[in-house]
Amino acid sequence: MNEARQRAPGEVYAHEYAGLVRLAYVTTGSLAAAEDVVQDVFADWFRLDGDRRDEIREPAAYLRRAVLSRCTSWVRRRVLERRHAAAPALTPPASDAPSQADIAAVRAALRRLTPRQRAAVFLRYYLDLPEAQVAAELACRPGTVKSLLHRSLTRMKDVLGE
Description:
Arc Repressor Mutant, subunit A; DNA binding; sigma factor; single chain; sigma factor activity; 9 helices
């Protein structure tokens, strides 16, 4: 029987942890990520029931392979995060941005609505929920939502002078 296989999981952890962290650090370039990866691998290994863990002939090799696999996933995820972070933000041009006066006017118009009308406008136009879902949120029928929105927009147009 293999000597490493006879060791208790705690002994394997004590013996292999530092080397696996070094391996993960070289792969990820981050000590914190390396420690997290190795801890996750050991946690998964400890969770295996005794028989399944005993089937692993070479725990050190199994753990190394698991660490390398997780490090590869970690690196891929970081590359993807950087790619998305580097993508230009989809913001409207500055000329299309509402002025502070416009924002204040819309807020004033919203304050003139009833709480139920404000909720309908918020759910439909700010959260972009479909009318059926707005109806479910307000515990009413979709037709009621349509009339609420119609009255709300009419009132806001009157207040805004449009």
